[in-house]
Specification:
Length: 133
């Protein structure tokens, strides 16, 4: 794994179908996530944040990410969480390893911040713009 990453320990986990397609979108039913007709248990790890390189790229080189994702998948994990919108190549590498990506966005967070209608609208617009990018 990346030099700044902690090692991943294996632990008991719920039964999980061997390879749920990453092309199917997870949906919410009640209090669970589902992929198709299979209940989906997130077994994940955060990936980052990393110190930006001189060009402002805040992820390791693709070969390093590929090695990290191989180790993550080999340890039975199925999801990585990023702290910002990753480059397309990172999403492609995750898909190659059967990993899902939960993308974090930089938004203001304070007590009851979603109660402010203006802030909630701004967050929705931020999400829409980042998803379309």
């Amino acid at each position: 794994m990346h030099a700044n990453s902690a090692t991943v320990a294996s632990s008991p986990r719920p039964a999980q179908p061997e390879a749920l397609s990453t092309s199917l979108r997870a949906t919410v039913r009640g209090k669970f996530l589902w992929v198709g007709e299979e209940k989906f248990y997130i077994r994940g790890v955060t990936y980052g944040p990393f110190h930006p390189d001189p060009n402002g790229v805040s992820y390791p080189q693709p070969r390093v990410v590929e090695q990290d994702f191989a180790a993550i998948a080999a340890n039975g994990l199925n999801t990585v969480r990023t702290y910002d919108v990753p480059p397309r190549w990172l999403l492609d590498l995750a898909e190659e390893r059967g990993l899902r990506v939960m993308v974090g966005l930089q938004v203001e967070q304070r007590a009851s911040f979603l109660d402010d209608a203006k802030v909630a609208r701004q967050i929705k617009e931020l999400v829409r713009s980042k998803v379309r990018a």
